[in-house]
Structures are given as structure tokens and as C-alpha cells.
Amino acid sequence: MTDCIFCKIISGDIPSYKVYEDDEVFAFLDLSQVTKGHTLVIPKKHVTDIFEYDDDLAASLFARVPKIARALEKAFPEMQGLNLINNNKELAYQSVFHSHIHLIPRYATDDDFGLKFGNNQTKYSTEEMLAIAEAIKNEVN
């Protein structure tokens, strides 16, 4: 795609701090560096989001994530955890529409990153949970 910033990074038209590359995957430091070592892992094939992955692309990209995560852990022994984030579509905070996985090293509870998971367990009855599960199960091919 000609106007995609990540495609331009892959082609070398825009410089990056590359940490990994092979025939199918490219990984580089996120310029925001939410925490030290914040890395983006992207498929070289342009896909907008997770909804455009086929099985081969998913296998290829997600097989590299642990390798890069282990490299982060070795490079930064003070790292105490790692968040994997994948935002899909604007409402889910996707801002670059070339699919990417954020690897965000965690060093302390007060670093400049946070997530909040609400607990809505009491909003759904057993019957509603079964209906939700069934609706999803019926769509998995």
C-alpha cells in the first residue's frame, strides 16, 4: 500500500529502529516508547487488522512474537513482565491501519502504562452467558 507508514518502514522509505526481520515479519521500536523496549511486530503483507488474517499469516506472525518477547527479556533482565496489545479498528484505539502487535515491557507498577478490565460478571445470567458462547461457537469455522 503506497500511503501506509508501516509499508514505507518495511520498504526502507522511512527509517526505523529495526529489531527483527525475515521474509514475512518485521519488528521495530515504537517511537512512543511507552516503556523501554516497546516494540511493534508487523506482517510484511499489508493487512488492515486481525480480521484480514488468513491462517498462514496468523501462524507466521504469531510464531515470531515469543522469539521477540524472549529477546526483550534477555536484553532487559530488569523487565518484570510484558503486555501484548493488538488494537483492531478505530474504536479499539487502532491508529495505524496496518495490523501490528505491541510488545510492551513492564518494569514497575508505576511505569507509564496501564490497562483496566472492568468486571461485569453480575450483568449476565448463566443463560445469557450460554447464549453468548453459543453465538460465537456457531461462527467459528
From TrEMBL:
GO terms for biological process: nucleotide metabolic process. InterPro entries: HINT, Histidine_triad_CS, Histidine_triad_HIT, HIT-like, HIT-like_sf. GO terms for molecular function: catalytic activity. CDD domains: HINT_subgroup (cd01277). This is HIT family protein. It comes from Vagococcus zengguangii. The lineage of its organism: Bacteria, Bacillati, Bacillota, Bacilli, Lactobacillales.
